[in-house]
Amino acid sequence: MSEIEKVVINQSVAILIDGNNIERSIHSITNNQSSMLNFDKLIPKLLDNRGLNRLVYFREGKQISSKLKERLHNNFHGSVRPCHKSADIPLSIKATQLANKIDTIIIMSGDSDYIELVRHLVSEGVRVEIAAVENTTSALLIEEADYFHPITSEDWFTLNKNPQKKSPQQKGTRKKATKKA
């Protein structure tokens, strides 16, 4: 038998993230509002040696972490787009705008509202992949996509917002060691 030659993958990928949907999914699984995606680990896993063309994080509301914006920009040249209401429409518009510029679109959401978008993109010849928490993802959305990436506990972390603080009494006190005779 001959060895399989290494295949060079030359695919341009856009990752479009429905931030609110992914956050709600993770929060419901962890039962903790401080759980967050670990983009530094997840994005390379999703790309799997393909080229990242675009990364856009859509987030409902005006309070978007400046640290998240900075991290996505510095590490992935990504951007964060605030949305008036839900991310469904802005994400769908961006996906259709990118359809003729890239090979693959990864939609990070389990929302069944994206089923028609996935069908449209596939009919345009775009490979569509879904990345989401499986328990909170529409089965039909998974079925319509070309591939499904389950987001698991390995892909998120939980911030410890209130680390155990020592009380004023505990701060300066230490047990003194006593010598035994």
Could you characterize what this model shows?
The protein is of the alpha/beta class and 181 residues long. It has one domain (18-104, 113-159): Rossmann fold. Helix content is 34%, strand content 24%. The chain has seven helices and eight strands. The strands form two sheets. A six-stranded parallel beta sheet has the order 4-3-1-5-6-7, with helices on both faces. Strands 2-8 form a two-stranded antiparallel ribbon. The radius of gyration is 21 Å and the shape is globular. The relative contact order is 0.19.
Please name the defining characteristics of this protein.
Rossmann fold, 7 helices, two-stranded antiparallel ribbon, disordered C terminus, alpha/beta, single chain
Give a brief rundown of this model.
This protein is 34% helix and 24% strand. The chain is α/β, with parallel strands linked by helices.
Going by CATH, the homologous superfamily would be 5'-nuclease
Residue ranges: pLDDT <50 for 5 or more in a row? Answer: 166-181
CATH class group: Alpha Beta
- Label the structural class: alpha/beta
Amino- and carboxy-terminal Cα gap: 77 Å
Number of strands: 8
Instruction: Tell me the CATH architecture.
Output: 3-Layer(aba) Sandwich
Helix content range: 25-40%
Largest sheet: 6 strands, parallel
Secondary-structure element order, as H and E?
A: EHEHEHEHEHEHEEH
Rg computed from alpha carbons, rounded to a whole number of angstroms: 21 Å
Give the amount of beta strand, in percent: 15-25%
Q: Which outline best applies?
A: globular
Number of helices: 7
Write out the strand line-up for the largest beta sheet, numbering strands in chain order: 4-3-1-5-6-7
What is the third-level CATH name, the topology? Rossmann fold
